[in-house]
Amino acid sequence: MTRKKENKKKSALNVQLGIDQPSRINPSLSKGNSRFRKDKVSVESIYKGIIDGDRTFLSRGITLIESVLETDEHDSHKLMKSCLPHSGKSVRIGITGVPGVGKSTFIETLGLNLIKLGMKVAVLAIDPSSKRTKGSILGDKTRMEELSVNDNAYIRPSASLGTLGGVARATREALVLCEAAGFDVILIETVGVGQSETAVSQIVDFFLLLMLAGGGDELQGIKRGIMEMADLIVINKADGDNIKKAEIAAQNYRNALHLFPILENGWSPDVVTSSAIQNIGIDHVWKKILEYVDHTKSNGFFDSRRRNQSLDIMSETIEESLRKRFINSPSILSLMDGYKKQILDDELNPYDVAGELIDKFLKDIEENK
User: What percent of the chain has a predicted confidence (pLDDT) above 90?
Assistant: First the structure.
């Protein structure tokens, strides 16, 4: 018996005790430990910080309005109501273009040029996000290294969350907060190009389209719709051996623009070339933007567009509020799972279900009067 025990003790099959693995959750962040938790800041404090131009409070304010938590909804509306009277004094510029056109480099160069002219510049960069995970790279602060550390600039990357046109759900509200914080120019960088960029053009004063020379026929499907909305087309990367190609492309686009109907604002869109990486032609782009602002302000279109945007805000707010009330209605929630199963089992069609749920929702409202 003793020999067997000794043999077992010396066996190579003995399991060696490993090192205890640390917890995958930082115990410092556990419930009840507030050492690393941020204290909740009042709406009044956030508002005051934004008005004072404090970028930390501006970021907190934007985080609040981007929140999807019901508990933050009231505070979000309260903050927006306080900041609205201080907004509307900036120039809002939407910038879009095909992937690889150099949007981030162009925005950084333009932003730094404007800062040298004594302006404060905010960049709302809308990143593409995964429909599966809702995650996003949010790499604009990395790409705009010099602009991101400038005291007169503010860069806020936001995930698009699949929103139409690449505009994040709260981009319009973030724009208002940036204006209340005293920024003179707001640049909105969008995901890409396509017919859905209409969503971008509806929240800005000036819509700029960046293009490359030699785009080819593969882009023809998106050019028409996006070009009709553009107030200025910029052929970027016009440097080195590409200068001649860029000039030819610019002339081709000018010829194409002559075929489009005259814009409602009376402005004739132009085509210019630039090299963002070498800071060539960027000052001319800004000159064109100022010409547009002066032109549309003189004929009343600028102010009229801003008022119409306010109506859009009202309509979208109504739609969003109704959607939330419908989805979160207890009676609708109680029926939803059963209806979903019946649709999946082909027992009901989605159109009839949608109609029944809406009728139920409206009936509940009537009964609760």
Answer: 51
Helix%, strand%, coil% for the chain, nearest 5: 55, 10, 35
> What's the rounded Cα separation, in Å, for the pair 275 and 247?
12
| Interatomic CA distance for residues 67 and 88, integer angstroms | 23
d(CA 223, CA 116): 34
Transcribe 260-327 into DSSP letters.
SPPPTT----EEEE-BTTTTBSHHHHHHHHHHHHHHHHHTTHHHHHHHHHHHHHHHHHHHHHHHHHHH
Nearest of 45, 316, 101 to residue 214 by alpha carbon: 101
Q: In the chain, how many domains are there?
A: 3
* 7 domain-assigned: no
Sequence-separated (6 or more) residues with CB below 8 Å from residue 167:
126, 160, 188, 190, 199, 200, 203
**What is the distance between the alpha carbons of residues 110 and 205, in angstroms, rounded to a whole number?**
17
Domain residues for 363? Answer: 312-367
Task: Encode pLDDT of 270-307 as tens digits.
Answer: 999 999 999 999 999 999 999 999 999 999 999 999 99
265 and 325 co-located in one domain: no
One domain, residues 74 and 177:
no
